[in-house]
Design brief:
The structure holds two protein chains of two kinds. Chain A is of the alpha/beta class. Chain A is built from three helices and six strands. A five-stranded mixed barrel of chain A has the order 2-3-4-6-5. Classes of the chains: A alpha/beta, B alpha+beta.
Chain lengths: 140, 820
């Protein structure tokens, strides 16, 4: 066997090892119920902002404390605490990917991913809304 | 029905040219295929004429589609969905181009037009390779053309047409007022267009000059990868296994330089326009274009090995094929919507997934099967590479780079696995670290290999030759790296000492790469610029690595909200100190070595965009500057803000800041109420940002106060307010007694947003009302970073690109010389 072949095998073995260890560190996409069932474990919670519940953010008091209620597609909700200001597009986002852990009765969120407005469907929904708004103005 | 005010001609022309481009590219593909397969030179000549004519028609069609679409956007013809969806009247002209490529169709078109340009150059220059290479290019053009077609084939919609009319797009279907008699079952009113006054506008985050130039450069990089791919396929197809490498090499170098610059322009945009606080986030969309770049780099190195030693031809074929396949894969990832949950940038499903997968499959399987069929026939050398040879170490470097690309791609593909297997695996907790902890070792290996490999000779190097030259740069590197580590304060301990050790190793390796390659320009090629393309490129790459390592590991959050600045959360509070700081207008706050003041704001004349004037003043020296981060506030009626950062550039570092929160003018009503506090002089009252002491209560008979008549009595409460930021203020609130009728005159401490009011006095006990209100304040919350040595990264990119282009020019010259 040539040296190059040995190195090739070692390289491939290392690659596989790296990917296996990566898979062991991955987390999961969860609903509120499943996130609550594993407190302290890092998960990706798929939910949206429940606009009917109060949102707490006062930049004068603490710019690094945001708390709101997230509700998932099954209708279950959880209080979310996030130590950053509201992320961009938070208000218009149809869905949030909340990364963090459920603990002490609330979801301690490390990062929030909102949907990017460059995505076409969202854009179109927002745009449709705007047509209706402008047309409502016209009709007044 | 005729609608008033529509311009239908451009769209009809556009449709015509789209159909023409589908047909022309198909004819070109077939004709070039025939040229390649026909033995008779007379027949081949006829086919070739047809093929060229068809391709020229294709070029004309694509150029026409491009121009017409731009005409529509430029003239704000909102009867076309594309113009309405992506632009607006208030948009600056320079951003009209960004609108063009904001959409799927426009970006496909951009890709297609670069293929046209490259195709014309190939027809002119590639001689005997023209037919097979252009078969591949024309076929790619056909695939792209179908993606723009928007035609229904047996009920299946093929592609998405940029000339769709707004009224046909479904957007207006539910707009009641635009229909006859306001009835949705009726058609649109003939004058509906008069109600569409403005377009939907370009996404504010894309209203940045980088977005004018980054997509064309990136897509030129994307498009140009087809050339080495086509040459490799042509080599396999026509069994000219060796010849293709000569013309393919300069093309591959061109592609590497342009794609690399294109990717990093995207990084520069992210740095200047996005608010994740950096230029790279290992986002799937970023990774998707980095992976083919890395494979292409590996392929170029194996190609050079082949040229000089005859080894590694098979891997060259494989790498060149995979480069293009991964370009197609990245197109699939970004456009199919599969990344929806994993990436912030990706598009959602555009309904073209069948076509996107088809594109991937149509190129992947034929090229791979061809490679496997021909594998045994591809010449290879039985004799083993010598360990002291340049090719041995170059191959290891290429292999490591390739495997690193595969690892990145596999991690990025988690959403694809989820889709296929129905799993719900998500990225790990610290996604960036999951990449960094592996790639840093790749950086170490690649850094060291780029440093030493140039000093080795192909086939065999005598150890005396090697050591004679390499000892100078080695010692120099050890000295420089030691100095950096000793005085550079690289102490990034977030991920433990092990990772810090890896960072140090990588710094040493990248310093070695920089110095050894710089030295090689003199030691190896005697300062000949023409010959030193490789060294310059590797030197640049070393700078890139060093820039990344230092700017990331020494990135500093200036707006760290530690106690003592604004807020004391009290004992036992779960509220952590954070990374954002609130600045009250006119009131300086400490931020690192700066006193930072929010001076005021100014509005954009045409848009809902505000510029916030933030003044930085150093306490240590007389450094002073103003940054103007801006934000779109409640853009298009949607509550919220979209911020654009601003940074101050220094040779050594950048100060980078953006607005992270603003008071909402709608909600900023004074809802706070006075809390009553019965106190005696000397007692204190706490509020959220400090405490206050009632110093004294005094009675007065006269006051310089309008309406204060002789006989009236007043009690003055003197209150000393101590803020936790160690400022203190005196406030006086009055209780006036006008013949039994009492009223109070409150006092305000603006910077603390406090309103004090003396409600009642009973002996020496006063009832002091305290209100903390937001409405009296103007403030911004911002985040500020310090990025050290970020310019080294940008400089490194430019040097790398220049180095690669020098090599390219040299390879083109060499090819010409050989032919002559």
């Amino acid at each position: 066997m040539k040296k190059i072949h040995i190195i090739l095998l070692v390289g491939i073995a290392a690659t596989i090892a790296v990917l296996i260890s990566f898979l062991q560190n991955t987390s999961t996409y969860d609903t509120v119920a499943t996130a609550k069932s594993k407190p302290g474990k890092f998960v990706h919670l798929m939910a949206r902002w429940d606009k009917s519940a109060p949102l707490e953010y006062d930049a004068l008091k603490n710019p690094n404390y945001l708390s709101f209620t997230a509700v998932d597609t099954l209708g279950q909700s959880v209080k979310v605490v996030y130590h950053q200001p509201k992320p961009e597009n938070f208000e218009i986002s149809e869905r949030l990917v909340l990364k963090g852990k459920y603990q002490d009765g609330y979801f301690d969120c490390q990062s929030i991913q909102t949907k990017c407005p460059s995505k076409y469907k969202d854009d179109m929904e927002a745009a449709k809304k705007n047509v209706q708004v402008s047309e409502a103005v016209e009709n007044k | 029905m005729d609608y008033i005010g529509e311009h239908l001609l451009p769209g009809q022309l556009g449709h015509f040219f789209i159909v023409l481009s589908v047909v022309a590219s198909l004819v070109a593909t077939f004709a070039y295929f025939k040229v390649t397969r026909t033995a008779s030179s007379v027949d081949a000549g006829y086919w070739k004429k047809l093929a060229r004519a068809a391709f020229v028609i294709e070029v004309v069609s694509v150029a026409a589609i491009f121009s017409i679409l731009f005409y529509i956007i430029y003239n704000h013809l909102f009867e076309y969905k594309y113009a309405w969806q992506h632009s607006s009247r208030s948009l600056e002209v320079k951003y009209l181009l960004s609108c063009f490529w904001e959409g799927q169709e426009g970006s496909t078109l951009l890709w297609s037009i670069w293929h046209c340009v490259l195709g014309l150059v190939l027809i002119k220059t590639s001689k005997t390779w023209e037919a097979p290479v252009m078969t591949v290019v024309s076929f790619a053009q056909f695939c792209l053309a179908t993606m723009l077609a928007g035609l229904y084939v047996f009920g299946w919609k093929m592609g998405s047409n940029p000339f769709t009319l707004l009224r046909d797009s479904g957007v207006l279907d539910s707009a009641v007022g635009l229909h006859i008699n306001a009835d949705l079952t009726q058609p649109l009113r003939p004058d509906y267009l008069s109600f569409i006054k403005d377009g939907n506008d370009l996404n504010p985050l894309l209203q940045n000059y980088w977005m004018v130039i980054h997509p064309p450069v990136l897509f030129l990089g994307f498009a140009s990868t087809i050339v080495p791919f086509a040459f490799a396929v042509a080599g396999l197809w026509t069994k000219r296994f060796s010849d293709w490498t000569k013309p393919a090499l300069p093309w591959a170098l061109f592609s590497l330089a342009v794609l690399g610059v294109g990717i990093m322009m995207g990084a520069a945009w992210a740095y200047e326009s996005l608010t994740f606080g950096g230029y790279w986030a290992w986002d799937p969309v970023e990774n998707a274009s980095l992976v083919p770049w890395m494979i292409l780099a590996a392929g170029i190195h194996t190609l050079l090995i082949y040229k000089h030693s005859g080894h590694s031809l098979r891997s060259t074929f494989l790498f060149m094929i995979l480069t293009f396949i991964f370009i197609l894969y990245s197109t699939f990832l970004t456009k199919s919507g599969v990344l929806g949950e994993a990436s912030v940038h990706a598009f959602t499903d555009s309904g073209m997934n069948v076509q996107l997968v088809g594109l991937l499959v149509l190129f992947f399987f034929p090229s791979l099967i061809l490679f496997l069929i021909r594998y045994k026939e591809i010449p290879s050398i039985k004799k083993e590479e010598n360990v002291s040879s340049r090719e041995f170490w170059m191959f290891i470097g290429s292999l490591v780079f390739f495997l690193a690309a595969i690892v990145i791609s596999a991690k990025t593909s988690l959403p694809v696995f989820n889709k296929i297997f129905g799993t719900k695996i998500a990225a790990p907790e610290d996604e960036e670290f999951a990449y960094n902890q592996i790639q840093i070792f790749v950086a170490v290996i690649i850094g060291v290999l780029t440093a030493i490999t140039q000093y080795l000779r192909y086939k065999d190097t005598s150890s005396s030759f090697f050591w004679k030259k390499i000892w100078i740069p080695t010692i120099l590197s050890i000295v420089v790296a030691t100095l950096i580590l000793a005085f550079g304060d690289v102490d990034y301990l977030k991920h433990g000492p092990g990772f810090l050790g890896a960072i140090w190793l990588a710094i040493v390796a990248s310093v070695y790469a920089i110095i050894a390659n710089a030295a090689y320009i003199w030691l190896g090629v005697k300062g000949s610029l023409k010959l030193s393309g490789g060294s310059i490129a590797h030197l640049g790459f070393g700078l890139v690595l060093l820039g990344i390592l230092i700017s990331s590991s020494k990135k500093e959050i200036l707006s760290k909200n530690t106690s003592g600045i604004a807020i004391d959360f009290g004992k036992g509070s779960k509220e952590k100190t954070g990374e954002n700081l609130t600045l009250v207008k006119g009131f300086p706050m400490k931020m690192g070595k700066f006193d930072v003041t929010y001076v005021g704001d100014s509005a954009h004349p045409k848009k809902q965009q505000w510029y916030y004037i933030i003044h930085f003043k150093s306490r240590e020296d007389d450094e002073e500057f103003t940054l103007r981060p801006n934000a779109f506030v409640n853009y298009k009626g949607n509550e919220g803000l979209m911020a654009n950062p601003d940074s101050r550039h220094y040779p050594g570092h950048d100060v980078f800041t953006y607005i992270s929160a603003l008071p909402n003018p709608e909600k900023n009503k004074d809802t706070a109420s006075f809390k009553s506090n019965p106190v005696k002089p000397g007692d204190s009252i706490y509020y959220s940002k400090g405490y206050m002491v009632l110093e004294k209560l005094s009675s007065r008979d006269s006051l310089p106060f309008e309406g204060f008549k002789p006989g009236d009595k007043a009690t003055v409460a003197t209150v000393r307010v101590h803020a936790f930021n160690s400022s203190s203020y005196t406030a006086e609130t009055l209780l006036i007694d006008q013949g039994g009728r009492q009223f109070s005159v409150p006092d305000t401490v603006m910077s603390e947003s406090l309103i004090l009011q003396l409600n009642k006095v009973d002996g020496d006990t006063a009832d002091l009302g305290v209100k903390e209100s937001n409405s009296i304040l103007e403030y911004v919350t911002l985040k500020a970073y310090k990025f050290p040595y970020i310019n080294m990264l940008w400089l490194g990119i430019i040097i790398t690109a220049i180095g690669i282009l020098i090599s390219m020019v040299r390879r083109v010259q060499l090819n010409r010389l050989k032919k002559a």
